[in-house]
Amino acid sequence: MRKISLIALSAIGVCVFSAFYTQKSTWQDLFDGKSLKGWKQVAGDATYTVENGMIVGTTVKNTGNTFLVTEKEYGDFILELDAKIEGDHNNSGIQTRSHIDQQANNGKGRVYGRQVEIDPTPRSWTGGIYDEARRNWLYPLDLNPTSKSAFKKGEFNHFRIECIGNTTKTWINDIPVSYVVDTLDKTGFIGLQVHSVGKNGEEGKKVYFKNIKIQTSNLQPKRIGKEIYVVNLEPNTLSSHERESGYKLLYDGKTTNNWVSSNKNVFPEKGWSYDQGELRVHATEGTDIPRAGDIVTKELFSAFDLSFEFKLTPGANSGLKYFVVIDDKNKDWPLGLEYQVLDDVKHPDAKMGRDGNRTLASLYDLLTAEKQPRFLRPIGSWNNARIVVYPDNKVEHYLNGVKVLEYVRGSDEFKKMVSLSKFKDKPGFGEAKEGRILLQDHGNEVSFRSIKIREL
Q: What is the pTM of this model?
């Protein structure tokens, strides 16, 4: 065997070390600590200065949202920085893959795109993802409430933002906060926001940014726990993270393999369509056409995390029921706990029941959803619903990422709600150990998609 010299081995070692060092040393400074070289101010009239190695943004009264943005655009990247914000009611954010409409805002321009929130208010949504000037909130922190404590008021906090492919993930002080899968914006600029201040707002409040660095090659995504909830905006798909976490699609956009009629063991021949990316019940109200009837899952479920998107037509009524038990007596009108799907403005059901407990996202005829107007989307738009049933029978309803109600099945309070409802004469209503998921045919056109579930 030919001997390898020590000199050759040393050379090999140097090459291996150099390759390793090169691969790991891909961070680039976005801020030189001395000037705003590589950045430009757009949209509003707040001020940005460089002080003691930091970018300092300061609020100015009667000006709109202001942004300091990179002159360069970025695609896939990992961004890290430290940020601190003054005041209890101030607000800021970090734009990612963003853009500007130069003609908007009377020619001053309007920035739009995904923003990582900096929020010192009691709401505590720092690290959540907001779609600035476009789609509103994508990842409110009701979806990850344990992460609200990651942000430290009045201190510098470390932000890590990964934008790789269609995914955006955030960490605050090394705690995972949000995870969004989105097809919009493959590239765009990075921006630092100073929020607008009205005539009664706090002028002179500051936001501090420092240690701003970016990686654009040799990206190594950080591991994120399986328990983090993923907002997946790609219809009827599961991300690799969702699959690893145990989610499965109840509707894949093409087939009805998981569904049958509530009163037959086959999917309805008419009245429902399913092969164009939407599971749609067709309108029959006001016609001589009989209803196709409800559809239910073939499987039974007990504890689960279920989400789905729905789209209403004007005046429409429908719902998703869970813990549905079907027998010969009720197969035509199966009973179950219902997440109400309703046009609150045009359908009369919204005015019935008690205290609005038949309105959108409510537990039908039992408990009213506490909705915030800014999270309501227009009729004809897709809305996201989520129902979580924990093993201890605690249940939560969400609408567009915000929790709107919670209750405990079988509790004294729950039984009291049932006793005051139309289900008071139904023994054990809503307390089945397991049941089917049901989509309701109420005679109106309503569409569903991205129906997915994870058993807990």
A: 0.92
